[in-house]
Specification:
Radius of gyration: 22 Å
CATH class of the largest domain: Mainly Alpha
Number of helices: 12
Distance between the termini: 42 Å
Helix content: 55-70%
CATH architecture of the largest domain: Orthogonal Bundle
Shape: elongated
Largest sheet: 2 strands, antiparallel
Number of domains: 2
Strand order of the largest sheet: 1-2
Structural class: mainly alpha
Strand content: under 5%
Oligomer: single chain
């Protein structure tokens, strides 16, 4: 039932805004993202879906533009995007792979092969999740619109998508630190963990956008003898080729110490 101004204590502006944001998220997921003509962020429809009075919505957002920009800032911002947006089964599979092949940590060749397989599996799991996500498409829409709306609105939207990207990159940096410690690789001089994380994110975003135009280019398997272990997705192969040029292998690596250090790190995070 739609709330009216006379139905007891009216909700606060913050309460209405929260309901509208929730309704917008649900509508975006149902629609598979923001698209031309789907009116997914229509204020009146979302007000009805949220069960709030349209007049209150109009008072908080006097124009459709004001509502659209505000919702885009929420939907493309770090509260709905960033590190928590996409539970990554690839990370779970990667950790399981390492756990099942701990003996391979004893040799450089074994660790190199494991890194290749981790990249192939992790990106191979993560990319389809991104491509099929209305949430990610909404982030892409926010990023594109940040360059086309009025300076003031564009600044707000740019800040929102920047915060989301920084959250995601911070997550990836920690992931690479963990993986580098376990497998014994580190950035070469002139690169950094941040370089690796940013490259990974850029490859995933770029290939996901290409998928919209030429999906067969993205999904067709690629076989590279140097990397072995079956077909690669394009994004995983691009990233692995770049990563190979950015890392060096620690000559003082000891597998038992690496595993012990990793377990201590995981224990410390549980206490954070």
């Amino acid at each position: 039932m739609t709330e009216t101004l006379g139905s007891g204590a009216p909700p606060s502006d913050d309460g209405i805004r929260g309901k509208m944001v929730t309704a917008a998220r649900e509508a975006v997921i149902a629609a598979g993202g923001i698209g031309l003509g789907n009116d997914v962020l229509d204020a009146a429809r979302l007000a009805d879906a949220a069960g709030v009075d349209r007049r209150r919505v109009r008072r908080i957002w006097p124009t459709n533009r004001a509502f659209l920009v505000d919702m885009l800032c929420e939907l493309a911002g770090p509260k709905w995007q960033g590190a928590e947006a996409y539970p990554d089964p690839g990370v779970i599979v990667t950790k399981s792979l390492i756990a099942e092949h701990l003996a391979d940590l004893a040799t450089l060749e074994g660790r190199q092969a494991m890194l290749h397989e981790c990249a192939r599996i992790s990106v191979g799991h993560h990319l389809p999740q991104m491509i099929g996500s209305g949430r990610w498409r909404t982030f892409g829409a926010g990023l594109a619109l940040a360059h086309s709306v009025a300076p003031g609105d564009g600044g707000r939207l740019h800040a929102a998508v920047r915060a989301s990207e920084e959250s995601w990159i911070t997550y990836l940096v920690r992931l690479f630190l963990d993986l580098g410690g376990l497998l014994g690789f580190r950035p070469q001089a002139g690169t950094s963990w941040l370089t690796m994380a940013t490259t990974c994110s850029a490859v995933a975003d770029g290939v996901s956008l290409i998928h919209a135009a030429t999906p067969e280019t993205v999904t067709s398997p690629v076989e590279i003898a140097e990397y072995g272990n079956g077909p690669w997705q394009l994004a995983a192969l691009i990233f692995m080729c770049a990563l190979d040029r950015m890392i060096e292998w620690d000559p003082d690596y000891h597998p038992d110490q690496a595993v012990a250090d990793y377990l201590r790190t995981m224990a410390d995070r549980e206490l954070e």
